[in-house]
Task: inverse folding
């Protein structure tokens, strides 16, 4: 152990998969398992989906989270190894994530608020294409977007659903958001936009009865929406920890050169 190193109080959380649970038992036996109320760091075992759930569930605690990949996808995770964990945590580099705040109003008049570390997406609920008005900071930019859907992505989420929808990869620290249509039909040539992170995006669903639309913030879904406002949170943050050789900024950079 490095001279002068002060042991961290580690709280482990794990997905319900067999691999994650086996790793959990091994790590707890080796390092102990601090109660969350007394922990200085959370170690999450699983894939990206489990990491997103961990970030949402433990945001009020304000603890940094270090993930180890034991799932299908692990863009937000470090490689799994059960040795030298305290040293890895001591050398890990923090990445500050700011979630998106989604305010959605349903056709029934109810309001729903949720946070998204990856993206907020709108999707058509039926075979009918969605018709959506797009406004930025109160100014209408697209009077009628005809599409399967549209999303707003954070920098961390730009390599997830946003990339699958042919949106841009955004460097961490760039203070940008990606506004990306999903299978757009009209306007013909519009393929999205890169926005300053301080931009407030507003979507209005046109003809919501004939063309119903749902809104999803990470995994929180609201159906039959008529209006959605999205902005980056300025108060709420979470810190992800990465091994120096596997930091998130480097992964986002490398993703742009993957075949």
Result:
């Amino acid at each position: 152990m490095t001279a002068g190193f002060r042991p961290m109080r580690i709280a482990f959380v794990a997905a319900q998969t067999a691999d994650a649970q086996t790793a959990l038992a091994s790590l707890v036996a080796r390092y102990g398992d601090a109660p969350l109320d007394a922990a200085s760091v959370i170690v999450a075992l699983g894939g990206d989906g489990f990491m997103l759930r961990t970030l949402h569930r433990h945001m009020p605690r304000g603890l940094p989270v270090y993930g180890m990949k034991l799932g299908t996808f692990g863009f937000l995770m470090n490689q799994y190894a059960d040795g030298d964990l305290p040293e890895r945590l001591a050398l890990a580099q923090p990445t500050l994530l700011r979630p998106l705040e989604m305010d959605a109003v349903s056709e029934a008049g109810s309001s729903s608020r949720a946070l998204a570390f990856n993206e907020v997406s709108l999707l058509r609920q039926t075979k009918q294409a969605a018709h959506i008005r797009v406004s930025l900071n109160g100014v209408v930019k697209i009077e009628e977007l005809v599409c399967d859907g549209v999303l707003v992505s954070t920098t961390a989420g730009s390599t997830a659903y946003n990339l699958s929808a042919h949106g841009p990869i955004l460097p961490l620290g760039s203070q940008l958001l990606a506004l990306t249509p999903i299978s757009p039909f009209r306007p013909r040539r519009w393929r999205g936009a890169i926005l300053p992170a301080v931009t407030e995006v507003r979507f209005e669903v046109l003809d919501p009865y004939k063309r119903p639309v749902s809104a999803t913030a990470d995994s929180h879904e609201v159906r039959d929406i008529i209006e959605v406002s999205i902005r980056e949170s300025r108060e709420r943050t979470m810190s992800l920890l990465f091994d120096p050789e596997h930091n998130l900024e480097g992964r986002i950079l490398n993703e742009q050169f993957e075949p």
In short: The CA atoms of residues 108 and 224 lie 8 Å apart.
